[in-house]
Amino acid sequence: MDSINHFFQFLSSLLWGWPMIVLLLGTHIFLTFRLRVPQRKLLTGIRLSVQSDKDAPGEVSQFGALATALAATIGTGNIVGVATAVALGGPGAVLWCWLTGIFGMATKYAEGLLAVKYRVRDEKGRTYGGPMYALEQGLGMKWLAMLFAIFTALASFGIGCMVQANSIALLAHETFGAPISLVGLFVCILTAAVILGGVRSIARVCTVLVPFMALLYVLGCIFILCVNGAFVWPAVQLIVRSAFNPSAAGGGFAGATVMMAARYGIARGLFSNESGMGSAPIVAAAAQTRNPVRQALVSSTGTFWDTVVICALTGLVLVSSILAYPDITYADGAALTKVAFSKIPYIGAPLLTFGILTFAFSTILGWSYYGESAVNYIESRRSNRFYRILYIVALFFGSIINLDIIWNIADTMNALMAIPNLVALLLLSKVAAQETKKYLWADRLDDEMDE
Fold it and tell me: I want to staple 265 with a disulfide (CB 3.0 to 4.6 A). Which of 25, 91, 97, 386 is the partner?
């Protein structure tokens, strides 16, 4: 077992090295200019996300699809992950993380567009889509589509299921003294109550849970920034300066370099918003939308909320807290996060705990649909109930066992998911550009999609 763990640890670090970072960030930048900067239509995307398109084909509303994607995307990485990037790469990592989100919006846009463009419907009117369908329908690469589906199914049991259940169980045990096995059982029951109802049930829960948990977390961050008011602008200046000159941060960050700040900031941004990973377009394909570009714009707002807003706020909270309380330890990302939130009187620690618990649970819900869709593609849609039961059982075991090897396997599968998806994005970029020109730049967003 140790040998297997070491193998996947090595493979994960290899796959998530500079080549993957350059490939993902390069795709973000390429698609930004290939599609003529769709980020400038952010406000249009936000408006469409809260509008109903009930007469259009699809299973869930555009907001339901966005909320489900955000449920899987917004996770502990938005809190502890950003703190780790700051601890390892210095305050400048926050700027690199933010820039990754800005450019990543174009990739998330293209993913959503291709998901709707190449989605399929069965005899009952249910819709299915994602990178596997784009690879098969758009490029004729059935073998690569199958590989993507396999990697996604495996990843769902890791990053989306067992590691999240483990985080919830350990946090509940450490904070409230709850028995780990009992917490695991409770998570299983709660998850079963949602996912056994399929994508519509998941979307209904996510449309309530995601805005609530995100708003509560954002308000907490804003409160801390008000407490640290005198240090907010100096924190912004420090973040910008140290992104290109880490020695400007001084103190324990003196050993950081521009490469370290860029590496940890970009990697955290890429991993946090999942742009280019191929997961979010799976649920985007289920959206009720009259043409691919409408849902593409809605999908792109997911990266905005996740990275440009939540990750940036977290980073600003952490850096302003470092300036406000220079005696705190910032070498440990988790410790830094706890210290920052402890500055909220009475409710700081509970708010952080609630944020991590709800972020982890929402990730469980979102990834259950991703994995189920992948299994559907590999086997048949008759496998739905079997997958859901297996997923629920895996939650319990994930809460009670050591997960070092699961983490390493999950990270590896996530990276392997990205490769086929990036192939689809790059080779079908001409199609995405044509659809964008047809509907977005010709001001035809209300037109029906050509069948």
Answer: 97
